[in-house]
Amino acid sequence: MRITAYLTGLLLLGLSQSGFAAAKIDHWQTSQGSRVYYVRTEGLPMVDIQVVFDAGSARDGQQFGLATLTTDLMETGAGKWNADDIAQRFESIGAKFGASSSIDMATVSLRTLTEPALFAKALETLQVILSKPTFKEADFKREKSRTLAGLKQQEESPAEFASIAFYNALYGNHPYAHPESGTLTTVAALKSADVRRFYQNHYVAANAIVVIVGDLTKPQAEQAAEQLLSGLPIGKKPPALPDVAPLTQAKVQHIEFPSTQTHVLVGLPGTFRKDPDYYSLYVGNHILGGGSLVSKLFDEVREKRGLAYSANSAFIPMLKPGPFLVSLQTRNDQTPQALQVLNQTLNDFIAKGPSEAELTAAKKNITGGFAMRFDTNKELSTYVAMIGFYDMPLDYLDTFQQKTEQVTVASITDAFKRRVNPALLQTITVGKAPATSGK
Amino acid sequence: MKNRILYAVFLCLPVYNSSAATKVAEHKLANGLKVLVQEDHRSPVVVSQVWYKVGSSYEPGGITGASHMLEHMMFKGTDKHAAGEFSRIIAENGSDENAFTGQDYTAYFQTMESSRLAVSFELEADRMRSLHLLPEELKKELEVVTEERRMRTEDNPQAKMQEHFNAMAFASSPYKHPVIGWPSDIANYTVEDLQAWYQRWYAPNNATLVVVGDVQAQAVFDLAEKYFGPLKPSDIKPLKPQTEIDQLGVRKMTIKVPAKLPSIVMGYKVPVLKTASQESDVYALEVLAGVLDGGSGARLSTTLVRGKQIAVAAGAGYSMTSRLSDLFLLEATPAEGKTLADMETALKAEVKKLQDKLVSPDELQRIKAQVLASDVYQRDSNFYQAMQLGTLETVGLGWQKADEYVPKINQVTAEQVRDAARKYLLEDHLNIAYLEPQTMTTATAKNKGAH
Hints:
The complex is a heterodimer of chains A (about 450) and B (about 450).
Chain A: H1 9-12, E1 26-29, E2 35-40, E3 46-53, H2 66-73, E4 77-78, E5 81-82, H3 83-91, E6 96-101, E7 106-113, H4 116-131, H5 137-154, H6 158-171, H7 184-188, H8 192-202, E8 208-214, H9 218-229, E9 251-256, E10 261-271, H10 278-290, H11 296-303, E11 311-315, E12 322-331, H12 335-352, H13 356-368, H14 377-389, H15 396-406, H16 409-419, E13 426-431, H17 434-437
Parallel strand pairs in A: 2-8, 9-13
Antiparallel strand pairs in A: 1-2, 3-7, 3-8, 4-5, 6-7, 10-12, 10-13, 11-12
Helix pairs in contact in A: 2-8, 4-9, 10-13, 10-16, 11-12
Chain B: H1 3-12, E1 24-28, E2 34-39, E3 45-52, H2 66-73, H3 85-92, E4 96-101, E5 106-113, H4 117-129, H5 135-154, H6 157-169, H7 183-187, H8 191-201, E6 207-213, H9 217-228, E7 251-258, E8 263-270, H10 279-293, H11 299-307, E9 311-317, E10 326-334, H12 340-356, H13 361-377, H14 382-394, H15 405-411, H16 414-424, E11 430-438, E12 443-445
Parallel strand pairs in B: 2-6, 7-11
Antiparallel strand pairs in B: 1-2, 3-5, 3-6, 4-5, 8-10, 8-11, 9-10
Helix pairs in contact in B: 2-8, 4-9, 10-16, 12-16
């Protein structure tokens, strides 16, 4: 990574901080119109490639789990190769393939050495997977039953139960409401033809971005991006996702579960990627519960009272407002007390905002630690994929610290008041209700 | 306690660097603190880790988990700094920090912009010798650790099985108890217990400082002299060997817990680098683990998950850098309609195949290619590199072992893999746990109304 001198707020405060140009992101389109984002990193003969489609679980329709099963099947057959052949092609050259989906995105990724013969083989394999997946019936059946087993196993976990109920409470009928891997009922109903159709509609050039981070020259990167997507039809982008319906009232929902702890989640739909309030919410949340071992929630719940191992809060920005969530886990009989501390801390923060001292400390942590967020190829490629997928400014990483510095106590207080209305909070508890747990 | 996470890392990645790029500078302070520096100038950041030679395998009965408890208490104040101050100062310097405890080590780390390294050194040096263990802080933190145990173990069927399995598999080895400790031990720690544990193990001559990142080795040594140099060494009494007794026949157990899926774990007693009479056996076992579970093309996936479809998931694991002899693990979840008995038979058939037939040249080539590539990929992460050096040094192998990994793996032959399977994967040295799910009921009470 190149390092150049550049002034930050910290430097003005008299601390020696050599801010560095985060990463020079080069951007172009393939001949078929797919957006490409490329960063040259030197020093190691390797590259991380991601091809990202707007094909996450938000595109499932009523067939919950379809997007995830599609990515799960990508490596099970393509062109004339079966799953064993594909595994052998990648592993015999030490390349690592991955395919996964989140709510917004489906991501197909490759990490490989850049030595020409190895790189060529890895790229060819990836290209065939992207453009000629076979989705054979036998593979489909097997992966579907593995997914069903995974869903059953999820039911052993109070954390999973809580998360599923939480998204459901926040999003109702919105495509963000259902779990990414679907439900036992919806996955059981899926057919291989559904996967094929989902792939054909969504895995198209107009709906793809390519991210290349590593030791490739620009001409090599251009050629790789072109080759990777050459087998895909241009197609079109899926329609815009519906807006998230506003909540109308606060709700508390308890799920009885045979665990020793109760998992508590409190929140509401929070912020989206291009939100003008994003930085105020982000920095404010860092003070409230985002800092890993230093935050108001951590202090009140764990440090002062020993009520939980982890207590934190987060905004998860997505295309549409993703959740703002506050969470902790505590011994069943302590749930009312822990929930009370959680709500008190949150409500106080919304009512009063942070102090100047807290804001200064948070800014120092965020800006001072900024370089560590993408000091590996892998982390950097994840950031670049985020910038590309959400169509953020290419200088996002370069301006992040400056925008953090511009946040004020007033802007945080204002943003939280408007965006986190205590009268609309959804509360989920999963565990043994205190009355029945008898400790 | 991140032991389980680390364990997962060791299951799927080769653990070392090759000599090609490992340029470690070493310096020992007069008080015995060993300092290792690996320069990596790709990004203006650095990771600093302090490793102590103490972990759950050092603990006698009655205070199991004391190392982990002490790890928590290390954030609770010193002569100079009040409880929580450490983390506040670190955070204000833009640094990330945490700590982890394993069977063989306790380690503390900060990652930061490289000019802030002195902040980390000053604070770590301070808490190496001047910790304040206060009863009221211990009382609260005990609750935190108990919540941690509930979250990680009590409410997780797989983790529970693992805990019971280790307790059965090991008889005289301290690997029999969990890193986080048994519940009644956790409930009864006293300040005196932890004070004694701290005084016994926390000293410069029982620690290794590992720094990887955008630094100059000599400057780091100077900085280490400045902050850690004045610390007094301790008289560290040697640890008793607590060697595992020979196992005299297969051991089996059933775990009945509320769960949804059955599963099986099988573990053969095997030596590790520290304990093997013949080092090549250990590298052969490492390759053997790769033959079974080195990705989607390895045997457990191709044969059991895809081919015969007996398992929905199957894995193998071997941690060659443990301090004491350990287990070669096979774990699997049977597919719908298959039983744990089917699963056991299938796993044993895979073991038998390894004993009867030589692995193919393709399989060996695949593993060697993966090791070579991983060797490059690992250098993408300062943290991972520091972990390797710290682990090797702390278990007593020495960081130089890192340089031997790629060449030693490359020397392993198909015959050696077969012979290792014949020599070590023995029925009489096998331990098996079956997880038999018990009904679990859940019920949703909807909409308890607005609050």
